[in-house]
Design a protein that fits this description.
mainly alpha, 0% strand
């Protein structure tokens, strides 16, 4: 039978000394991050049609152009 190493169990409410967040600021970058990001969750069947975010953006730009052309025709 192998010998098992018995290490002292750490209490889950104590943090290691090398993790010092005493000078941290909560939400320091949250506003800037939220302003620059739009997250859209695609349905799995739709997501499977695109390999990258650039593919999705390219397709949406093409659709947006078609919609804009159609609006211009309807108002003219």
């Amino acid at each position: 039978m192998k010998k098992q190493n018995k290490k002292k169990a750490r209490s889950s409410d104590q943090m290691r000394p090398e993790y010092d967040f005493s000078k941290g600021v909560r939400g320091k970058h949250a506003e800037r991050y939220a302003a620059g990001s739009n997250v859209v969750v695609l349905a799995p069947d739709v997501a499977s049609q695109f390999q990258t975010a650039d593919d999705v953006n390219e397709t949406l730009r093409a659709v947006a152009k078609l919609v804009e052309r159609r609006r211009k025709r309807q108002t003219a």
